[in-house]
User: What shape does this take?
Amino acid sequence: MIEFVLDSRSKVATYMQLILQVKQALRVGLLRPGDQLPGVRDVAQHLAINPNTVLKAYRELRLEGLTEGRPGGGTFLVGTLAGPSLGHQAQLRDELVDWLGRARTAGLAREDITALIDTTVRSMFDSPAAEGVVVSKEASSP
Amino acid sequence: MTEETALQTAGLGKRYGRAWALRDCTLRLPTGRIAALVGPNGAGKTTLLHLAVGLLRPDEGEVRVFGRDPRAGGQALAEIGFVAQDTPLYRDFSAAELIKLGGKLNRSWDAALAHERLAHIDIPTDRPVGKLSGGQRAQVALALALAKRPRLLLLDEPIASLDPLARHEFMQTLMGAVGETDTTVLLSSHLLADLERACDFLIVLQRAHVQLSGDVDELLAQHRTLIGPRETEAAAVAGTATVIRASRTDRQSTLLVRLPGALPALADGWRAIDVSLEDLVLAYLSVGAQAKTETAGELAAK
Amino acid sequence: MIWLTWRQHRKQLLFTLLTLAALAAVMVPTGLSMHHEFVKSGLSACLGKAGTAQLVAGNAVNCSELSSQFSHQYSSLTFIAVLFVILPVFVGIFYGAPLVAHEIEQGTHRFVWTQGVGRMRWALAKFGLIGLVTLVIALVYAIGVTWWFSPLIASGNNGRMNYVSFDVQGVVPIAYTLFAVALGVFLGVYSRKVLPAMGITLAGFIAVRVVIEWVARKNYLSPVSLKLPITSTQQYNMYAGDWIYSNSVVGAQGKTLLADAQLQCLGGNVVSMSTSAGSGALQANANPCADAAYQGAYNLQSYQPGERFWDFQWIESGVFLALAALLIWFALMRLRRIG
Assistant: This one.
């Protein structure tokens, strides 16, 4: 059975962290369809978090079709994560190499590139509420 | 609103002499929430909790728990579990004796549950509780409050004087217990960090007044930090947002705003970022701190 | 609540019982010895012969030698009378004052008043149970002390109704104790601190007792006046157990000739003359019996008859019990509002 951990310093919402951990576990094979997720009460107690947060995460997983409830109780995994098709991956990789080349030409060092990727990924994946983010137009003003 | 209300206050006020410990307190805590009551010492947290549990009589306004006046006795008190600050218990009683006492003083009492909880965390029930550690005593107080099977659980700074491990264990026990039942919880602390992960409802008290209250998710969705050029500040927020706190350099304004609805399109040069719960609380605390008169709590703390 | 009260006060109760046992260990042997000696010395018989009539024949029984011998023998024990006078207030201080004040001082009221029982039922149960316990304690020592003291009081010249003697017998010790407990509880509720409550209970108890004893008690019932002509061969019976307010010699016209004095004349000569004040008036008049002003004069004694002992006991008990009830009432009213 999976045991959840929390990154208390992360900006990611707690329920989202739980969801991501389930998905990651599915991806690497730690969790397989048919496995049971720990009970809401046990997770809440173990992590000292609000049970509603756990409920929210479990509900989300159910909506995404990854889990289902069973008559006797408990939450069980049903789906698998559709892995990205290999074809898609190869194309994305090529585009990435291309982009990296352009970044280096522009003068970005390794740390700059890593930082840029990091912040962009975070703002895209981790803050779904920030739809109102408007890219500053300062750069484009004459 | 179809949701039941666990705790409701209307214009609630309490004064000591001429100074008000709590004033104009109007809030509504729906059932099923785990609420955090935050504010500095002397802000009125203990006063509010004592009013909710019937230890104090309001000087103004009213307080109702599940629709009943907590001072009406009997039924109202039976539904409220309370752990006072510094977990006062009869120090020479053992935990077993306290559980026995609870059974005699309360109509509905689950002694077996209390014993089970304490056994689960290895707390000896035959030793006088005065000889237990602070963390163990807090667990006993919690077990006693939970044995009542209350619908509303009020805790006054239960972990303030505990070491980090004891704190964590207490919160674990509390979250586990709440996970099993349908209890609404209101716990106070002067440190938000302790409560952040546990609470989905927030009440901010500062200088005897409620500065902010509501569901955490809603509050976070309603607030943003807007950053942009100082010259266009007025235009950027006019009619769309209430500025809670502002800080300005000669060129830039950083505004923490509350939005009535969805975030509108922003003017040129402006961007919005999310507010963390901690920043939100800090902003409202600093707003409240600017009040002119001292509260009774602050006078007492001197 | 019964269990809680017992569990909270069991040490205190044990200590009280041990104290009572220690007292009994002293009092029982000495009491038995006194009662035995009282009979053996003939004092009991003598007093019995003297009877309780108000007036007796002139050369009637004189037990004074026996009685002073008896008193002298047990004089060292009379200081215990002082102890018993103040015993009620200690019960009040140790049972009454901490009852509410200790809970508040320790903060445990925040625990126990938020249980289902609620603060008023808690208070009524606690006050009632402690009242009952102190009532029983007071009853035991009232009975014991009354028994113990009776020979000493009978042998004294002052009877049961005199100050101090009255206070340690009968039912008033019980009323004093309940009053002391009520006072302690009341002050504990108002001051919310144990030590100040104890101190003020002591002071308050002494003040109230002093005022009632010295000012109020003699007014419970109107005193009786008994006239005795100075030429009578009878005397006032000093063993009647009366509480004497005043003695004076009054002239035939009603004018007081001698205050604080008694006079008996036979055949124009002074048979006996006693005065408590200085002999100033008498020096001027060496033989008042021959004085014309004293023709038809009579002794006037204002007193409370010894038979009224129980009337006075019940009246004074009533006063203190009423005060106790009032104090408990105010304590409950205050308790309701405490924050």
